[in-house]
Amino acid sequence: MDPEDQKLVTLARATRARTGAAEGAAVRDDTGRTYTAATVALRTLSLSALQAAVAAAVSSGAQQLEAAAVVTDAGHVGDDDVRVLTEMGVASPLVADPSGAVLS
Questions:
Q1: Are strands 94-96 and 65-72 parallel, antiparallel or unpaired?
Q2: Domain-embedded: residue 69
Q3: If residue 8 lies in a helix (H) or strand (E), which one and from where to where?
């Protein structure tokens, strides 16, 4: 695996562990900046970790992403996550389990 992609998995894993959330995610924009986020599960707002990471990137001015990673027990990401990543230029994220082992 590319070292920069491994960094995304490490950041996503650390974010998930730090917050105790269901998922952690990290994305890298086309200038090399990284953004991390965890699952948002409020009564009035629900975002997957990938959606929250993309929102952080876009709100910081990112126009395009070049890579994304998510750490989850589920072993996959939902269709909504795939759609938002596709809109931002990423065909599919790296998906890893909580140990950091990449599943896809």
A1: parallel
A2: yes
A3: helix 3-19
Tell me whether residue 54 is in a domain: yes
In a domain, 35, yes or no: yes
The confidence score (pLDDT) of residue 24 equals 98
CA gap 48, 55 in Å, rounded: 11
Which residue range forms the structural domain that includes residue 27? 3-96
In this predicted model, what pLDDT tens digit does every residue of 48-66 receive, in sequence order? 999 999 999 999 999 999 9
Domain count within the chain:
1
Q: What is the pLDDT of residue 66?
A: 97
C-alpha span between 32 and 103 (Å, rounded): 24
Parallel, antiparallel, or unpaired for β 23-29 and 34-38? Answer: antiparallel
CATH code (residue 15): 3.40.140.10
Residue 104: per-residue pLDDT = 80
